[in-house]
Amino acid sequence: xxxxxxxxxxxxxxxxxxxxxxxxxxxxxxxxxxxxxxxxxxxxxxxxxxxxxxxxxxxxxxxxxxxxxxxxxxxxxxxxxxxxxxxxxxxxxxxxxxxxxxxxxxxxxxxxxxxxxxxxxxxxxxxxxxxxxxxxxxxxxxxxxxxxxxxxxxxxxxxxxxxxxxxx
Length: 168
What we know:
By secondary structure, the chain is α+β, with helices and mostly antiparallel strands. The protein contains four helices and seven strands; from the N terminus they run H-E-E-E-E-H-E-E-H-E-H. The protein has helices at residues 3-6, 73-80, 117-124, 136-149, and strands spanning 7-21, 29-38, 48-53, 56-69, 86-93, 106-112, 128-133. Strand 1 and strand 2 form a beta hairpin. The mean pLDDT is 84. This is DUF3305 domain-containing protein.
């Protein structure tokens, strides 16, 4: 089944990135996702500055779709069992000037509620994967989706075939 047919539910999430002064001598700024905004409008042009203080600023950097798939309900169920449930935000490095006009910023790439999907991005090593708290509206959506579509698949231990015939 293709992803398009398998995908059932989507919700736009605004990705809020925080820029802080870096302690590293190799980077002036450290970027981290800090929250999401359920139902946020798209970001067109420059990132929207939401708030700032001394040495830090928070931007609405992008709006990405949270996509829920029937085949990934096990990952959602695992996430919902954690306290608190989280969303994983995947960031990719951007070499030129970012949308915010800042050099060397990261770009939000994917947001997921699946503990299994984020694992593939964590293993690659080329992306930054960090978690943010899952808002109540998103918890309700993911919980309802999981309850509606989850099917328990029993574990079946495979029997190993003998390499040599029994008499040898």
